[in-house]
Amino acid sequence: MCHTDCFTCTDVGYDKCLTCQPSLFFLGNRCYQLCPSGFFGDSATKTCSACSDGCDSCFGTEDNQCVSCKANLYLAESKCQESCPASYYTTGDEHVCKRCHYTCKACAGDSIHQCESCISNLFLLSGDCLRECPSGYTPNSNTGTCDKCADNCSACSGVEPNQCTGCVPHFRLDGNVCNPACPEGQYSLGSDGKCKSCGHRCLSCAGPDDCTSCNEATFRYNGECLTKCPVSMFKRDRACLPCDKAGACLECDAMGACRNCKEGYKLTQGNCNNPCERGLYLKDDACHTCPTDCAACNGPSEFSCTACKDSTIESLRVKYNYQDEVYCGGCSGGCELCLQQYDNYCVSCHPGKHLLRDTTLAQRAQCVEACPAGTFPTQTNGLSECVHCHESCGECNGPSATSCASCGPGLMLEESSCVAQCSESFYLSGTACLPCDNICKSCNGPGSKSCLTCPPGFVNQAQECVHSCSPGFFQRGDSCEACHPTCLECSGESAHQCSECIAGFSLAGESCVNACSQGLFNDHTLNTCKPCHVTCTNCTEGGPAQCLTCKAPLVKNTDNNECWQCCNEGARDRCCYCSGSNINTCTLLAESFDKHDASTWSSFTRYVVGGVLIVALLGVLICPLYHWKNKQAPTYSLLNDQDSDETDRFNRINEAYRVDEDDEDFVSMIHS
Fold first, then answer.
1. What pLDDT score does 277 carry?
2. Does the pLDDT at position 547 exceed 70?
3. 637 exposure class (CB count in 10 Å sphere: 0-12, 13-18, 19+)
């Protein structure tokens, strides 16, 4: 029987499993409910599959499916890395990278006030990333920071003393420099450089009706020096201060103790208190009910609440401060909770709406039906919020630079990233960089026939990557270029660099011609012009018997198509009889001997004929002497059998001149 974890096994042990129970995962002959470190339970195969390198635990085999990391690695967006990427931070020994506030490029924590550097178009000042630097600071585009102006400058274009554009009190602007201001009791606005009097009660001022200190017997209040403080104020340190923060006291002594209270309050030991129970306020010595949303109040106005009935609103300080009073009437503009009654101070939204924060002031936020361009919706602790895209994105589905759906001006979308120029293996189509065909290294359009360059092992032929150039092309560098139109194979684009020709043309040297020139014939097996025999000017093939015309002074022998000499030009060896009507041809016909026998007989034949004539002459002289001895003497042929052909030709002469074979002296003379 198998172990209880096993479905099938080789033995009874827990480590002898072949397959596991349906709820368990198989690894190394064991079955696990939870896979060990470095593995995860694959529900499809019911096995413990290995995590990617670096993952200590994971939910898949990819490197971006980690849950925790091995020692000395950091987890960021489900991926284990040697350090946290930009816009992330880590604390303590957690080794988990957390995202900075979206205004931060680098940070020490997730707060908006913990930035160490800022995204583009924002400037760092004391941990905050600001769209505009405050007074006394100037934006530095190179460092992305708000740099403090020089001493005495209230505004500047740079940090140098001669780059001031405004001055602090007691200094005036001379050109771009802040110099000491006018004497005590005077001021200068810097327009004309002249000092003007602050007024008879001001000891010093920043301008007209803007006292910064007062002379004796007067007290500063809202830029004025008064001899008597207003109601609800008391004198201290030559200034008018409010009797109490709540504003319930109408008059107080020099120590701030109240002497007279507003309606609805009762004076008790120098303090103004509400004697009525919670939810009521005092008026005309009677307690009246507070406004509907107030849990406590000091008057009938909706802005006179001191506590709200909604404890959630109160605990979150979601209230609107108006003239030192609290408004509990709820939020407007779709806010579920808010910091103030206006719709751009929302803390959370009603279902179906998204919170959109202001990039310049973190407290400002509004609820919108749909996230605008440049933001994307996300859930954060149950709150639906519009988070700003990366600065390069026009629209996005995440905060990173690789989550863009569209791009800002001057940028192109390439695989969810916005780039100024398409990568090598992409081409521009409208405002997007689209991937080239897999066979192309670079391209200018879709498909395999738009390649500009090719990977190793391929060459570019008519914007298509091939292993070798097709017929009609030759390789030059990494490209196939077209041969001359007559060439099927070539070594260059010239008409004189062919090595094989197209149909209908023949190769003559390294050129393709539609007809071979004089002295050449077309070898149809190779489609090449080859030289005729040396005796031919034109021919059908390369042998001596395939001549069409002959080189001078040779003429064509019509019996065998060879080029011979005419016999009547003094030639006696391999010559033929030339026709009088056609001087370019000759013949070996037999009847030619009757016309030209004197010039065609061989030396042997002439000797034979000469011998016969001598014998005939002697016969005429001596015939009467021997006639009586041998009237019937036999005749001898004077032709030798050495040349049977010539013997046949001269039968007529042999028949005409015969001698007697018994004439021994004559025969002996001929043979000698």
1. 80
2. yes
3. middle
Q: What local confidence, expressed as pLDDT, does residue 611 receive?
A: 59
Distance, in Å, from the CA atom of 293 to the CA atom of 249, rounded to the nearest integer, reads 25
CA-atom Rg of the chain in angstroms: 61
User: CB within 8 A of 153, min separation 6: which ones?
Assistant: 136, 161, 163, 164, 165, 166, 167, 168, 178
Query: Is residue 626 predicted with pLDDT exceeding 60?
Result: no
Tokens of 449: 């026939």
**Which structure tokens are listed for 174?**
């001379």
SS3 readout for 402-465: CCEEEECCCCEEECCEEECCCCCCEEEECCEEEECCCCCCEECCCCCCCEEECCCCCEEECCEE
Q: Are 463 and 449 in contact (CB under 8 A)?
A: yes
539, amino acid identity: C
Residue 273 CA, distance from chain mean position? 74
Return d(Cα 329, Cα 331) in angstroms, integer. Answer: 7
Parallel, antiparallel, or unpaired: how do β-strands 562-566 and 575-578 relate? parallel
Q: Tell me what the mean pLDDT of segment 327-332 comes to.
A: 65
Q: What is the pTM of this model?
A: 0.35
- Structure-token pair, residue 507: 């190769």
Give, rounded to a whole angstrom, the gap between the first and last alpha carbons of the chain: 133
- Per-residue b or e along 207-228, where b marks 16 or more CB atoms closer than 10 Å to that residue's CB: eeebbbbbbeebbbbeebbbee
pLDDT digits (tens, 9 = 90+) for 192-223: 556 778 877 888 887 777 888 888 888 888 88
The answer to whether 314 and 330 have CB atoms below 8 angstroms apart is no
Q: For residue 33, give Cα distances in angstroms to 1, 21, 41, 47.
A: 20, 10, 8, 11
Residue 213, sorted as left (phi over 0), alpha (psi -120 to 50) or beta, turns out to be beta
Q: How many CB atoms lie within 10 A of CB 437?
A: 17
Give the closest residue to 313 by CA, choosing from 297, 293, 284: 293
Tell me how far apart the alpha carbons of residues 434 and 55 are, in angstroms, rounded to a whole number.
33
